[in-house]
Amino acid sequence: MKEHHLVLGGARSGKTAFALRSAEATGPTRIYVATGQALDAGMAARIAQHKAERGEGWKTIEEPLDLAEAVRRLPKADVVLIDCLTLWLSNLMHHERDAEMETAALLNALDGLDRPALIVSNEVGLSIVPENALARRFRDAQGLLNQRVAAEVARVSFIAAGLPMVLKAPG
């Protein structure tokens, strides 16, 4: 799927910073598609931090649910950064939307995108098995979402301690 790049990692692993640097190296016109919502003070602070890290040269589109439609309607730019699939999936589950159907729609929209996209997502399956059923369901759905996207994109990186490891590269 074109030159799309999935950037995986744990919380605070450096995945967004890596994706930002990669996007900035791609070209001067950049779009940031944000899926997070400021539903509490902690999330509002995190969103403010991400905005500050982006600095100038970014057009931001906020879309917590209809990500496929947002990708289809993107204005022209050199590169797109979607941050992140984890919050998007959480939003879908909270609103009881069909994650499998939404994922298929997103992959279809990405396939039609005429420029590279960097797609950030958390790897949540590296820890202990969650105690409650909802957390287990989310962990499983996130793992399946990451697998589906990784299978379709040209490049996949895993970020740990700010260091990228290439999991998949063209050729």
> What is the SS-derived class?
alpha/beta
Helical coverage, percent range: 40-55%
Following the backbone from N to C, one meets helices and strands in this order, namely EHEHEHEHHEHEE
The total of helices stands at 6
Instruction: Outline the biggest β-sheet.
Output: 7 strands, mixed
Report the uncertain regions: none
Total beta strand runs: 7
What's the pLDDT, averaged over the residues?
Answer: 92
Strand order of the largest sheet: 3-2-4-5-1-6-7
Radius of gyration: 15 Å
The proportion of residues in beta strands is: 15-25%
The span between the termini is 13 Å
The coarse overall form would be globular
How would you briefly describe this protein structure?
The chain has helices spanning 15-26, 41-54, 67-72, 85-94, 99-111, 133-152; strands at 5-9, 30-34, 58-62, 79-83, 117-122, 155-160, 163-168. It has 171 residues and is an alpha/beta fold. Strand 6 and strand 7 form a beta hairpin.
Can you offer a commentary on this structure?
By secondary structure, the protein is of the alpha/beta class. It has six helices and seven strands. It has helices spanning about 15-25, 40-55, 65-70, 85-95, 100-110, 135-150, and strands spanning about 5-10, 30-35, 60, 80-85, 115-120, 155-160, 165-170. Strand 6 and strand 7 (about 165-170) form a beta hairpin. Helix 5 (about 100-110) packs parallel to helix 6 (about 135-150). The longest helix is centred in the C-terminal third of the chain and has 20 residues, at about 135-150. It starts with a strand and ends with a strand.
